[in-house]
Amino acid sequence: MSRLILLFLLISQLTGCTGLGYYGQAIHGQIEVLGKRQSIDDLVSNPETPDKLRLKLQRVQKIRSFASKAMKLPDNKSFQSYADLERQYVVWNVFAAPEFSVEPVKWCFLVAGCLSYRGYFRESAAEEFAEELRLQGNDVYVAGISAYSTLGWFNDSVLNTVIDWPEPELAGLIFHELAHQLLYIKGDISFNESFAAMVGVEGVRRWLESEGAVDQNNKYLVARARRHEFVKLVMRYQKNLETLFSSVQLGSMSSGDKQVLRKNKQELLNTMRQEYQGLKEKWSGYSAYDEWMGKNLNNAKIASISMYQQYVPAFRALLKQHKGELTVFYDAARKIGAMEAGQRNAIMQQLEKP
Q1: Dihedrals φ, ψ of 317, to 5°?
Q2: Which of 85, 115, 225, 302 is exposed most, by the fewest CB atoms within 10 A?
Q3: Alpha-carbon torsion 172, 70, 337, 242, what sign?
Q4: Domain ranges for the chain
Q5: β-bridge pairing 118-120 and 81-83
Q6: What spatial distance separates the first Cα and last Cα of the chain, rounded to whole Å?
Q7: Strands laid side by side in the 158-159 sheet
């Protein structure tokens, strides 16, 4: 709790009223999460804990042990507690991008650096801020988020928002969030999220192998392959939109020209939807991405996908370079992370090449 007090005192010296309001809700939300934590050991041993929850928490204990011992991730008290927030999501992230750009709007924070979203612990607050951004002419996307990392400031908990996930996804989440504690470069969301995403996927593969869960592993690999195809589709159309927007001089456009550009943009988005339907047919009707693709598709939504996946192939190549040795891989990733941003991006792009 002392860290929250210190953080609030720092913020009060550095921000205006708007900043204080935003950080105030963040601190209040974090206090709520901390206040609802219960030790997983205590819950497992408590006879009043429902059997279904006890079994899931016992699996979490095994996954958490595997994360430190086999995946060489931080060995601390994170994910050794459980919190029931009595809601579907822990936070709601607001993403925004200009109407004619897929470059996301960024906001800068004391601890995390500059990020391409703002998180709120109340959906109504997120929607209120989103409406302000829409009125400024931005494309906006509000996403419910099931878990997040405090980057080691606090001991993160397993939440009710994820406890009923299939075990591979739950394991991947724990590996992902612990990876943020292992390596986080302030202000470089694509590097951070891609690193954590790759560690999460690799962790699940190794976890299921260790459990001898062949069927589960096969299903997980199929789901990941579909995810990969979906992300490739979105990122390809992100580049198509970039090309479209860069072909015009926005500052000198008439209202009529902008209407034509809007029409061309919408045609690209519709074509992406059509290609997605082709993927669904290939996937025998698998529909996990229907809601994302079907509603309010815009620049902000597309940017939210690319920033989380951009360098996953590069990190996969880096792990392969080091023959799957995690400790050496982590050291190599840290060295790249310590570079100046331009050099770091150049290295990552080079790693992506076959």
Answers
A1: -65, -35
A2: 225
A3: negative
A4: 2-184, 216-352
A5: unpaired
A6: 48
A7: 37-39, 81-83, 158-159
**Residues 336, 73, 41: CA angle, nearest 5 degrees:** 155
Which residues lie below 8 Å from residue 91, measured CB to CB, with a gap of 6+?
29, 119, 120, 121, 145, 148
Query: What string of DSSP letters covers 44-69?
Result: HH-TTS-HHHHHHHHHHHHHHHHHHH
Using the CB atoms, write b or e for 58-84: b if 16+ within 10 Å: eebeebbebbeeebbbeeeebbbbbbe
Using the structure block, give the residue that is written with the tokens 């204080």: 20
What count of other Cβ atoms lies within 10 Å of the Cβ of residue 9? 10
Helix axis angle for 51-69 and 189-211, nearest 10°, is 110
Tell me how far apart the alpha carbons of residues 198 and 206 are, in angstroms, rounded to a whole number: 12
Global pTM exceeds 0.85: yes
Residues forming beta bridges with residue 118, ordered by sequence position: 94
Structure tokens at 42: 């205590």
For 306, the token pair is 């690319």
Buried b (16+ CB within 10 A) or exposed e, 290-325: eebbeeebbbbbbbbbbbbbbbbbbbbbbbeeeeee
- What is d(CA 325, CA 84) in angstroms, rounded to the nearest whole number? 36
Q: How far is CA 266 from CA 44, 237, 272, 274, in A?
A: 52, 12, 10, 12
Enumerate the β-bridge partners of residue 94. 118, 142
Q: How many CB atoms lie within 10 A of CB 130?
A: 21
pLDDT in tens, 190-239: 899 999 999 999 999 999 999 998 888 888 889 989 999 999 999 999 99
Read off the pLDDT of residues 240-286 as tens digits, 9 standing for 90 and up: 999 999 988 877 788 898 999 999 999 999 999 999 999 999 999 99
DSSP labels for 281-326? HHTTT--TTHHHHHSS--HHHHHHHHHHHTTHHHHHHHHHHTTT-H
Distance between CA atoms of 265 and 100, rounded to whole angstroms? 8
